[in-house]
């Protein structure tokens, strides 16, 4: 916050509950007094037009009534007020008032008073234009280089520029690719209009190009008339600023340099006449209005920028020179010259706080009053605290809309996975090339303690695993009743899964007195699948490309104790070496050290290490938990295989790029195929048959290309799914190794998984 506050020179509150915006404030010698003293013109959305001639007010005194020269209520809301040479035959200043559907130009004049009440002011309507379109804002200037008069350009809400040569309407032009209106201004140096479009880019249109472009009134005519009525409106230059603009201002304080200032939502730009950036300033606040004004230093421009923190900042080019505090948020700011005082800052807020101020350094001295020390009555404080706690408890009691939740759930869903594989495999349409694809039975039980309406069960396992049936719908359940379903899980696609987990979810409704239709509820549970579902025992392998070593703080455990389902005692000594043959063809070997407390996992594929490593650590933890050993821990001290992991990332990324390439090629060939079809159809419909000129051969060739591309895209998609599954397994493995290496907690591992494993499935849209 600034130490310096804006010193109030004169201020007033306009009306009651009136609204104002950026275009509602104007400062000029509107009554042509010739004294060089500006008047403050304010229009409101309630239709009130006020003109003030401020005089200095002593501190504590109110504004004098004679400061208000004129107050008149017009028939419509006032969007913008401007002062210029708007009437033909005279170079006097006139007031232009923009309404939603009307433009009015008034002459403001004063009559000398004969009594002490002072001079009388009135406005006289010189001419008005009824607008066919709803107006948004306007700008004025000597369009086309005319001398001694100003022309007016109004921008409508639907993107039409309507130009008026004083009392007559000149022409209208639509801006190309228009969506929403932006700020509009005129540069007399280049004779062009500058605006900011909805594409967040500054656009400049020459007045001469506008004049010779196609008339907006002829836009709805036939194609032939449109072609003959004029040229298409072309933009002179474009600059992308990447944000919406609040206001634009063109300044030219000397003959050499002209600048275009654009105030964005987060940046402040200064452009040259040709649209090149002269400089820009990133703002660390949200601006509300601005105005450039002449600087005392040659070659620089000063700018006042108001913001939503009630601050007014003074910049010299990009350097902050001063910051001052305002009593309100300004929506419009101007610089005016009053009685012997030049450079007064005039600000207007959206609720009608109009203030003229100057920059000063008088500090506001505030002394905190002394606090009366009194003894604390602890009994009274305790009684008040209990009363407040009672009020809080009453307020936080839940309404009886939902039934009161009891200690037990209304509906419980449990899943029980069979300890043995199915004697007869239930695998359906499996793509795995193994001789036998095993399946395991999952028994799901739903127990209801209350009346349950429309229960439905969904069972989810992540691909490449699949279930024999994943949707079940039941009749309404009575209290203390249950339903049981049995299904089988198997490996469907020819790659190893990254997770051996499943999820059951039951959607149901519970009726209440207030809602007989029932309140929707969800119950769910997870289940773990056995490792035997995707691999079977095999001979250990000594050689492997990838090896990991897991350290423990307990003596090594023999494999028959922790892997009884994979050890065949008739095969001889398998206490320290165990082989796992995956259904997809790869093999992983598990070795236990006879002397140290270490276990080694090795495989030819990095991703195959994940499930075996996870299963090993899980079974070791369960084994020592049964022995009431609480301080068991696994650690990893080797190097994390990042290079191999990055190769999987690159492979997956390459396949994603291929998928995009196939999609583009398919789109091109499909467009070509349809174009040839249209040509052939035209030939076949023709009453006088013409030769096909090999169009049928071209159609057949294009058809073959489309089919070949579709097959290639399908094959790439299958490869991409396998690469995604491998990458997911490798990511799980890397996260696990990091957690063992750094001894991370469960919450920290969850953060890592949420960061590196955001995708449940791989799609081009994500």
Automatic annotation (TrEMBL):
What species does this protein belong to? Serilophus lunatus (silver-breasted broadbill)
Coiled-coil annotated residue ranges, if any: 371-398
Domain of life, per the record? Eukaryota
| UniProt keywords, alphabetically | Coiled coil
Q: Indicate the segments forming the PTHB1 GAE domain, all copies.
A: 435-527
In its UniProt entry, what is this protein called?
PTHB1 protein
Q: Please cite one Gene Ontology biological process associated with this protein.
A: cilium assembly
Query: Which parts of the sequence belong to the PTHB1 platform domain?
Result: 530-637
State whether keyword Coiled coil applies: yes
Which intervals hold domain PTHB1 N-terminal? Answer: 1-363
**UniProt xrefs under InterPro entries:** PHTB1_GAE_dom (IPR028074), PHTB1_N_dom (IPR028073), PTHB1 (IPR026511), PTHB1_hp_dom (IPR055363), PTHB1_pf_dom (IPR055362)
Q: Give all residue intervals belonging to the PTHB1 hairpin domain.
A: 640-742
Q: Which residues cross the membrane?
A: none
* GO CC, any one term: membrane
């Amino acid at each position: 916050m600034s130490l310096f506050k804006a010193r109030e020179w004169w201020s007033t509150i306009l009306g009651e509950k009136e609204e104002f915006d950026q275009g509602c404030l104007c400062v000029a010698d509107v009554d042509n007094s010739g004294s060089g003293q500006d008047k403050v013109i304010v229009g409101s959305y309630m239709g009130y037009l006020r003109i003030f001639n401020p005089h200095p007010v002593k501190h504590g005194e109110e504004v004098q009534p004679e400061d208000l020269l004129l107050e008149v209520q017009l028939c419509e809301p006032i969007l913008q007020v401007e002062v210029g040479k708007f009437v033909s035959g005279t170079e006097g200043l006139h007031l232009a008032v923009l309404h939603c559907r009307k433009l009015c130009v008034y002459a403001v004049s004063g009559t000398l008073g004969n009594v002490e009440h002072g001079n009388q002011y009135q406005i006289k309507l010189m001419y008005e234009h009824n607008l066919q379109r709803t107006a948004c804002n306007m700008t004025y200037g000597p369009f086309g280089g005319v001398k001694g008069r100003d022309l007016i350009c109004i921008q409508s809400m639907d993107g039409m520029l309507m130009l008026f040569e004083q009392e007559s309407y000149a022409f209208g032009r639509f801006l190309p690719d228009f969506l929403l209106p932006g700020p509009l201004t005129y540069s007399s140096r280049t004779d062009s209009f500058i605006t900011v479009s909805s594409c967040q880019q500054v656009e400049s249109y020459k007045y001469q190009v506008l004049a010779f472009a196609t008339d907006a009134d002829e836009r709805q005519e036939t194609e032939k008339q449109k072609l003959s009525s004029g040229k298409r409106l072309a933009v002179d230059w474009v600059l992308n600023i990447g944000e919406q603009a609040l206001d634009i201002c063109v300044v030219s304080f000397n003959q050499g340099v002209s600048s275009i200032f654009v105030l964005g939502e987060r940046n402040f730009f200064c452009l040259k006449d040709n649209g090149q950036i002269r400089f820009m300033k990133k703002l660390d606040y949200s601006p509300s209005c601005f105005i450039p004004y002449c600087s005392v230093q040659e070659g620089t421009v000063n700018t006042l920028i108001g913001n939503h923190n009630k601050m007014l900042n003074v910049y010299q080019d990009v350097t902050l020179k001063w910051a001052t505090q305002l009593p309100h948020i300004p929506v419009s700011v101007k610089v005016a010259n009053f009685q012997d005082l030049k450079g007064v800052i005039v600000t207007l807020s959206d609720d009608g706080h109009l203030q003229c101020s100057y920059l000063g350094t008088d500090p506001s001295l505030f002394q905190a009053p002394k606090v009366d020390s009194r003894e604390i009555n602890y009994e009274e404080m305790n009684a008040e605290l209990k009363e407040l706690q009672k009020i809080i408890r009453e307020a936080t009691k839940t309404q009886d809309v939902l039934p009161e939740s009891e200690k037990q759930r209304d509906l419980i869903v449990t899943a029980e996975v069979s300890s043995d594989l199915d004697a007869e495999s239930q695998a359906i349409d499996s793509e795995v090339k193994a001789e036998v694809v095993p399946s395991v039975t999952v028994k799901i039980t739903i127990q209801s303690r209350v009346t349950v309406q429309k229960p439905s069960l969904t069972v989810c396992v992540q691909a490449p695993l699949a279930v024999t049936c994943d949707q079940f719908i039941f009749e309404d359940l009575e209290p203390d009743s249950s339903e049981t379903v049995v299904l089988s899980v198997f490996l469907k696609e020819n790659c190893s899964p990254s997770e051996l987990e499943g999820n059951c979810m039951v959607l149901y409704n519970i009726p209440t007195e207030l809602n007989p239709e029932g309140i929707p509820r969800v119950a769910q549970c997870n289940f773990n699948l056995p490792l035997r579902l995707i691999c079977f025992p095999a001979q250990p392998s000594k050689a492997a490309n990838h090896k990991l070593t897991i350290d423990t703080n307990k003596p090594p455990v023999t494999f028959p104790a922790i892997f009884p389902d994979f050890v065949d005692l008739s095969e001889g000594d398998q206490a320290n070496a165990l082989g796992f043959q995956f259904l997809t063809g790869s093999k992983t070997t598990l070795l236990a050290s006879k002397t140290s407390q270490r276990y080694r996992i090795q495989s030819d594929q990095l991703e195959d290490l994940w499930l075996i490593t996870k299963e090993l650590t899980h079974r070791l933890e369960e084994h020592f938990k049964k022995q009431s050993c609480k301080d068991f821990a696994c650690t990893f001290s080797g190097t994390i295989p990042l290079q191999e992991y990055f190769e999987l990332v690159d492979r997956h990324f390459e396949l994603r790029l291929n998928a995009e390439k196939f999609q583009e090629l398919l789109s091109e060939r499909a467009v070509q195929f349809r174009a040839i079809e249209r040509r052939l159809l035209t030939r076949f419909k023709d009453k006088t048959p013409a030769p096909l000129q090999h169009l049928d051969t071209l159609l057949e060739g294009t058809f073959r290309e489309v089919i070949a591309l579709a097959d290639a895209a399908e094959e790439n998609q299958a490869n991409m799914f396998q690469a995604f599954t491998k990458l997911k397994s490798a990511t799980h493995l890397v996260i696990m190794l990091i957690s063992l290496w750094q001894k991370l907690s469960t919450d920290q591992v969850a953060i890592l998984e949420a960061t590196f494993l955001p995708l449940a499935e791989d799609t081009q849209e994500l």
